[in-house]
Amino acid sequence: MTALYDAHAHIGTTEELTLRKKQNILSLICATDPEEAKQLEELAADPSLSSVIRPAFGLHPWKADQISFLAMEPWLLKASVIGEIGLDSVWCSVPLSVQEKAFCAQLELASAMKKPVILHTKGQEKQIARLIRAYPNTYLVHWYSGGEGLSDFLDLDCYFTIGPDVFYQPAVQKAAVLAPENRLLVETDGCSAVKWAYEQASFCKRPLPPWNDIKAVLNHSIDTIASLRGISPESLAVKMEETFRRFCSA
Hey, what CATH class is 5-249 in? Predict the structure, then answer.
């Protein structure tokens, strides 16, 4: 039986972490500041959770005016995956110049140390694609939903995690169809993000899984992506397992 992988999530609640263990969902979990990084490091070392947590550390753009690169650097040096990092002009009031300074410092470290990177790209897709060209590396675009910039990330051979709104969001569906099969992954972004995404789809009459059932949410997204691509969910899940492991070991 093919295992399930959540390629982008956050620490969330104790109940959520327990469910990841119970449902055996190997999860790439991001810590977005030093405090979260310390907590995530401890969780990943916990024998009851270590089998399902793959930690990633990165200074999130929303926090770039509160926390310095130097404060985050020790955690970046420890990380096997860096993220999520990037730029955001939609859900964030931090000046873009401040965000970009933190972003580029982390890109430079990640490129020099050959650590794969998870990208947060909201509203700044084109600029991020331009910036990362200067820092050769392995990149994963988390929950791509932009109106433009997809072709740039495809040209850069990026990985993509498809968000839980793929059943109704055209931009997400476009990424789900155009991303190469060996660069395609699925994510929840945590149960609270699934709840938000499902609430935006009140117009949709199709039955949805409970937003806090991680396994059901991931399977729902895989089924949707497979339908969009004209392939079987089973073959897609097998490919995603290979892709997840390849990205994490890049």
Answer: alpha beta
